[in-house]
Specification:
The chain is α/β, with parallel strands linked by helices. Helices cover 37% and strands 15% of the residues. Strands 2-1-3-4-5-6 form a six-stranded parallel β-sheet, with helices on both faces. Strand 3, helix 3 and strand 4 form a beta-alpha-beta unit. Helix 2 packs across helix 3. It is globular. The C terminus is likely disordered.
């Protein structure tokens, strides 16, 4: 299966290298898709992703795996596709609604400059709620964040950046909880094993049976 991995905000494709290695070892074809939120718009990134699908994936079945902001890019792009839609989407620690962290940090110039248009969109309720969730989507929500009364999230389940409810969205997609933090959830072996199990159901490995 062709797998396209899209990193999160403030990261690069290097953050997905361990996940790429594990997927490749299982026999899958993995493509890293990078972007620069400081310099690119969501429309521009989406168009580049669509070109990658047209030129490198073509008619083959594929899946999309996105971490954090990468999941927003996936939701936005899949809605633009009239054909060649993914067989499945795997969203790792996705902000499914305008999250508290984005709303807070969007007040500061440095955040707005570094994260560009896409960082600002994360704080907009109307934009985030109108993003459709692709069919056959699985959400991997981290619940390994600190739960202390004097911290911003208090005792609520969180991954250090997102509250669990912010990663779950409207409940229309399957949500799996893992004891991971937001930043490194893509490196979780348990998350990878679950993705691999789902990929095997979509495209079972070829097994030669000798006579």
């Amino acid at each position: 299966m062709d797998c396209i991995l899209i990193h999160g905000m403030g990261r690069t494709s290097a953050s997905m290298l361990l996940l790429r290695h594990r997927l490749r070892c299982a026999g899958h074809h993995v493509h890293l898709f990078g972007y620069l939120p400081t310099l690119e718009t969501l429309d521009g990134v989406s168009m580049r992703l669509q070109r990658l699908l047209a030129t490198r994936i073509q008619a083959r079945p594929y899946v999309l795996v996105g971490h954090s902001l990468g999941s927003v890019i996936i939701r936005y792009t899949v809605a633009q596709l009239s054909s060649q839609r993914p067989a499945a989407c795997f969203l790792l620690a996705p902000p499914m609604i305008a999250c508290r962290a984005a709303k807070y940090f969007s007040q500061f110039f440095l955040f707005r400059w570094l994260t560009g248009e896409m960082g600002q969109l994360l704080a907009q309720e109307a934009f985030m709620r109108q993003l459709a969730v692709p069919e056959n989507t699985t959400i991997y929500a981290g619940i390994g964040g600190p739960r202390v009364s004097w911290l911003p999230f208090g005792s609520a389940l969180n991954d250090g950046i997102l509250l669990l409810e912010e990663a779950c969205g409207d409940g229309s997609s399957s949500v799996l909880e893992f004891s991971c933090g937001h930043t490194f959830i893509m490196n979780s072996r348990a998350v990878c094993e679950n993705i691999l199990a789902a990929l095997n159901e979509l495209e079972p490995p070829n097994i030669e049976i000798s006579a």
